[in-house]
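Re-running Luciferase-like monooxygenase to confirm reproducibility after the cluster update. Everything else is unchanged from the original entry.
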Amino acid sequence: MTRLSILDLAPVAEGSTPGDALRNSLDLARHAEAWGYNRFWLAEHHNMVGIASAATAVAIGHVAAGTKTIRVGSGGIMLPNHSPLVIAEQFGTLESLFPGRIDLGLGRAPGTDQRTLRALRRSPDTADQFPQDVMELVALFAPAGPDQAIQAVPGAGLNVPIWILGSSLFGAQLAAMLGMPYAFASHFAPDALLDALEVYRERFEPSEHGTRPYAMAGINVVAAETDAEARRLFTSQQQAFTNMIRGTRGRMQPPIDDIESFWTPREKAHVESMLRFAVVGSPETVRRGLERFVETTGVDEIMVASAIFDHAARLRSYEILADVGKAAFCHRSETSAA
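Result of re-run:
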C-alpha cells in the first residue's frame, strides 16, 4: 500500500505573517495525524518572504511538540549550509525529545541564492563535499567510541533515519550506494524522475539503513469539491511559479479567475512543465491522478505539497486527499494481492 505524507513549505500568504504560517503548519499537522498521513516534513529555504521554515529544526520541534504520533522531519535540511556536527546535535536533540518520530532528509542544493549563501557564511563549493558530509553525519549518529574526541551530544547512538533528497541522478546514485531511502523532488523538478528511480533501484546496496530500496516522490495536489474550484485554488501556485521565473518571489497570492491573463505563453509552458505531475480536481479526478502517478513510478510513498492560499481550503484539500488515498491504495493493494 502506497503511503501518503505531507511536505509543508509553511507558506506565508499575502496579508499574514510568518507566525501565522507556522501556526497553520501545526494545525495542518494535527489534522494530518488524525487523517492518517504517515509523515510531515518541512523544508529549509532562506531569504524568501513567502516561506517561514528557514529555521527548519526549530519548526520541526514546534510541530512535533504539538502532535503525538505522526513522523516529523526535514524535506530537507540543505547540508552544505551547515556543519554535520551542528545537524547531528539538532536532530539528536529532536530525537531525544520525540523518540521514534524524527526524520532527517538531506539535500545538496543551498535552498537560496548565492548572495544569501555567503550571508550564511558558507562557500558555494561546499556542495561538492555533500557525500563526505553525509558520511560524517552518519558517523556522528553512531555510538561514540571510548576515545572519540568529538561527539554529538545528543546525537551519538541515536537512530535518526536519514533520507537522501534529490532532483537529478546524483542523489539517486548516492542514496543507492549508501543504502538509504530516497526522495525525489518531482513537485518542482520532474524531468529526471523516472531515470532517477531506475538508477536508485538498480544500484541499491543493502545497508544498516535499509535492506531494500524505498522511494518517495513529491507531487502537488489541490483537491476540492469540483474540478473548477480546484483549478481556481491552483492558480495561487501557478502565480508563485511564474513569479519565481520572473525573479519576483513574494508572499503567496490569492487565487485568480483568469490565469491566462497573468502569464505569457512562454511562462505558461515553463510552469506547466515544472508542475506536470500536479493533480488538481475533484475527488474522482484526484483519485485517477494518484493511481496514474503510482502506476507510472511505482513509488512506495507520495510526498504531497499543496500550496493553497486559504488555510481552510488547504485543510479541506488534504482531507479529501486522505479519503481518496485510502480508497485508491487499499483497493490497489487488494487487487494486487488477488
